Predict the structure.
Amino acid sequence: MSTSAPTYLPLRDRIIANTVVIVLALLTLAPFLWFVVMSFKPSSEFFTGVEGLFFTPTLENYKGLWDGRFSTSIWNSIVTSSVSTVLALVIGTPGAYALSRASMRRERTFSLLILASRMAPPVAFAIPYFLVYRHIGLLDTKTGLILVYLTFNLALVVWLMRNFFDGTPRALEEAAWIDGASLWKTFVLIVLPMSGPAIVTTAMLCFLYSWNDFFFALTLTRNSAMTAPVEVVNFMNYEGWEWGKIAAGGTLIMMPVLIFSLLMRKYLVAGMTSGAVKG
């Protein structure tokens, strides 16, 4: 059996490739970096041009956030996003496994029907949710938002995890069954530990959907359950746009997702590439 030596790019090509990657990374991070810098600027220096690059940083914009309801809205976002993500994983992962291992004539059609709930635009569900929530008392509640996010995240969990389970070998599961393990015990002790990267990736996508949601939070909340994205919009009022608070609020909203992505990047890459090669 012959093995071929790894090939390396010439020095000039590597320099060009690295330069392109750095430029693309800077272009991608430019809006976030601009937002962060703007959040530390005094209000009088927002539109000062080139000379505005040199300024004395201030925390007044962040202090101003906590004088209002922003701390409550951040907490609402954390609760609704986290709880809906956990529930979607707890309910959807076993469902995806069952769908992957089931032998049904219409299995693929059933999977497409589950995914169909993510294909329709959110505005198609807004009025039905609003009318139902008004009658059952879930308007302006965190429970109502959690149920909405759970509905949409369940389809995402089932679809992504099912594709992962389809690509995993079944030899270990069959060995466990021969040794007398039940289906549930096999799923918990063998399948779930192998699914770590896929679960982290799916959880990240579900959390992002819930955390960044603006439409349902705007439609179904008023004061008590208002989330951070909606609260930031309230800084745009008739008296003028409070740019400092908008930048500080936007930075705080983006920061948890960025930190979580950096901490879990190894699992995210593994989850994205799992199942890419079969056989």
Remarks:
- The chain has one domain: 61-273.
